[in-house]
């Protein structure tokens, strides 16, 4: 746990939350500043700042909860769809430095945008550049 992390304080019960799901390792609660009715955050109970900080078991538990919750959140608020996403790092818009998955219900005509809209201007990459990036990612996994 991190003493100065709001999500760790929620896990500890020091800050109230509208909990919708809880296991030994994962907690899900309604976002206090929702982007839509039913906006839910799913977090690991143990503190991890970035997705890459999660061990395989915890990552599996976290995403199992996300897959279980997403259709149920949609059904609860009669949504037409949902955006599911993670802001990983300050440059990506992560405001709380604790891994959290957003389940944001979407409704026809709600004025929201797809996840592709968060990327800003798209880079114009050549085939050679794409090949080099793919090779670098593969090498990073092998290293």
UniProtKB/TrEMBL annotation:
* A single BP term in Gene Ontology: nucleotide metabolic process
Q: Which PROSITE patterns match?
A: HIT_1, HIT_2
Concerning InterPro entries, the annotation shows:
HINT, Histidine_triad_CS, Histidine_triad_HIT, HIT-like, HIT-like_sf
The Gene Ontology terms for molecular function here are:
catalytic activity
Q: Where is this motif: Histidine triad motif?
A: 98-102
Q: Which residues form the active site?
A: 100 (tele-amp-histidine intermediate)
For this entry, the protein name equals HIT family protein
Give the organism, scientific name: Halorubrum salipaludis
């Amino acid at each position: 746990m991190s003493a100065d992390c709001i999500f760790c304080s929620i896990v500890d019960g020091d800050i109230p939350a509208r909990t919708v799901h809880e296991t030994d390792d994962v907690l899900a609660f309604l976002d206090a500043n929702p982007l839509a009715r039913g906006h839910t955050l799913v977090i690991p109970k143990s503190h991890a700042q970035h997705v890459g900080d999660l061990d395989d078991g915890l990552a599996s538990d976290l995403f199992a909860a996300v897959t279980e919750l997403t259709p149920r959140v949609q059904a609860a608020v009669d949504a037409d769809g949902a955006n599911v996403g993670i802001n990983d790092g300050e440059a990506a818009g992560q405001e709380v430095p604790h891994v959290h998955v957003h389940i944001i219900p979407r409704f026809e005509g709600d004025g929201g945008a797809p996840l592709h809209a968060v990327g800003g201007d798209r880079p114009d990459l050549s085939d050679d550049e794409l090949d080099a990036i793919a090779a670098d990612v593969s090498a990073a996994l092998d290293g």
